[in-house]
Amino acid sequence: MSYAVETRDLTRIFAGKKKRRRKAGEEVDESVGPVTALDNVSLKIEEGELFGMLGPNGAGKTTLIKILATLLLPTSGQALVAGHDVSKDPFPIRQVINMVSGGETSGYGLLTARENIIFGLWDKRNAKVRMLSTGQRQKMNMIRGFVTDPDILFLDEPTLGLDVNAARVIREYVTNWVRGQKGKTVLLTTHYMAEADQMCDRIAIIDKGKILACDTPENLKRMIRTETTFRLEVDAIRDLTTFSTMQGVKNFSHKDDIAKNRSFLTFILEDEGPVAEILSTITLQGKKVHSLQKSEPTLEDVFISMVGRGFE
Amino acid sequence: MSTYWRTFKTAAWLGWEMDSNWTEPWLFVLYSVIKPVAGAFILVLMYIVFVAIGRPQGDTDAFSYMYVGNSFFIFVATVLFGTFQVIQSDREWYQTIRYIYISPISYYVYILGRAASKIAVAVFAVAITLLFGAMFLGVRLHLALADVPMFLVSTVLGLAVLLAIGICLGGISFLTAKHTHGLAEGIPGLFYVFCGVLFPLSILPSWGQAIGRAIPLTYWFEITRRLIAPTITVNTTLAGFDPLTILFFLIVSSVGFFALSVLIYKVGEYFARKAGKIDMTTSY
User: Fold this and answer.
1) Of B68, B210, B79, which is closest to residue B157 (Cα–Cα)?
2) In chain A, which residues have their Cβ closer than 8 Å to the Cβ of B104?
3) A33: in domain
4) Does B93 have pLDDT greater than 90?
5) Does A312 fall in a domain?
């Protein structure tokens, strides 16, 4: 069977380079790397699939998309898009692909947006691109991806920096585009869990260049359904070392809201046993618990369970 | 073929929009006239300085030589820089290179198309400069009707060489960001000195003359002067070659430079893809 996208032991290592940093008021050269952006990644994406790559910044998602879009050569391994090798045969691949990178405000600012007739940009069709807002430019960026009616579309963080409504419109459009036509495939990278959960047929969780898991959102969540997820909002807490060694705590992550002086803790527990100990540890530090919630596992919980930290 | 032609046309339209769409049309036309005329005044100033230094009595042949050379150097500066900076501007400024590069077109043809708009702008500037020189500065121009075909062929070949050199530099610029402006300014500067733009090859030392003879633009400037200003009697060291021989040199060097440009472009592109530099942004 031929796949829309197939990678075999795909590895990409970026050579080390010198970076100039300021240290104690002086410019100094520091050597960085080499960096393994992709580490033996093997994936198969079927035609007609909306496939998600979920991972934090620096996980290797963009590197993978760049290789598949023929912008970058792999260090080793093989990547096939529409049956063609990205290293040896890029031109036929370019006939059937397109890509959109989110968070960009790029474009020829001196041209008008006349072609931008979807996503509610019709009233801006004669406006020069430089006059558009960031969100409007990002919509235009999306339009560019669909203009060629590609068979395989790579979306790299497509809703990054968009407001809630614009992001919703784009998610709906992409989903309908894949579902409504035969043979259209989307590879979507995101670090928005809900976006991946809502849109994707299958999701690969990637971290530090390695694929940690690859399955449907339901199956991924089912993997940790035997575990229990608790979320707590507490006064800002600094000493977290106790939690990592606590018996029954499989993994946990935390985010701080400095403005509110609060910490948000997520615990993946083997059962509900450690909850009392967690609460007493917090209160013994003189911190107040503002909320405690037991919840169904999310994709973020799956990630925390696998990696031992959240995305932030 | 139709894909190449469509790519070329679209890229040329894009280049023209980028060149002309930054202001109102009337202001663009005014700018297009004033800029070359202002350039002509710089030439007059340079000539006055030369005269003050060397020949108080003046030398109309030398002025015409210098004026025609500088007028056609507008092509070098505009087309060479315009071709060379396509990759840089799409990569660093507009950040569109990744989308264009992965589209099913020839990026090489796309660069040629973008450069075509520069040629259009340069043709207008050169024509204005020459007209201004002939009308107000006493530059003696005369293009015989019989020489028009050869003039057109040599101009096309000269521009082809410029495009080829520009794409060679573009291939290099795939791999570098820091030094692009140095290359963009420095290479035309070399041509300015060694190709008989401002002064004839005969006043250069022998090694300088050898460099000049190795650059096809020298022959282009020579044949252009012979055709549009035949009364100039300046010893250029190329007097031994008739116009057809010089045209032959131009044809051979055009083909050679285009072959070289494809090679350098392909090598630059391969290494840029390998190093992940196709769409790098450095904020330079």
Assistant:
1) B79
2) 91, 94-95, 148
3) yes
4) no
5) no
